[in-house]
Protein: Response regulator transcription factor
Amino acid sequence: MEQLFVTSSGQLRQRWMQAFADARAALRVADAVSLAPRDPRILWLDASGLDRTACLERVREAVATGSRVVLMSAVPGEAEAFEALNQGAVGYCHVEAAPSQLREIALVVEHGGLWMLPELVQRLMGLSLRVVPTPAPAHPQLDTLTSRELMVAGRVARGASNQEIAEALDISERTVKAHLSSIFDKLGVRDRVQLALAMNNIPTYTSVN
Structure:
């Protein structure tokens, strides 16, 4: 999938190039789309220097092209995240996100999932449930999860990042990612937000059986 960055400078940042060797940049959404008119693409929108109105207009314009859109904010916040997702964005992150995180975001988005900063997952989930009630998936198959997977899922439901989960459970981040992949498959969810919804109001586990 093409990785196209829309930024006021029209230039790729070093960390973006480190994340995606074939990434390309453009000044405008239309210019980015013209670089890959037929291919599936992710449009990464650099919101640095844009006010709220201009930022949301750019998200709407990008979504209208049929691209998968990720908004990159200089000062991430739950209000902006909620607005961007309401406009059709499928990802929301810091503009200075590390290359490894950018690749993780791309993987989730390419597979039809939704990605946002882990620390916003819990707060945004609570906000969405109040504003636009969305029930958690019916009867998630928690009995199919191992004890360790239940522990990981429970911490994701509380908005913990992979690093925080790894430190709390004394395992590597690679192992956390492996557990999450297995959890997603077993519960039929695509991303951390759906997992948090599935785990909402379900007791979490604090020890390994």
Summary: The radius of gyration is 17 Å.
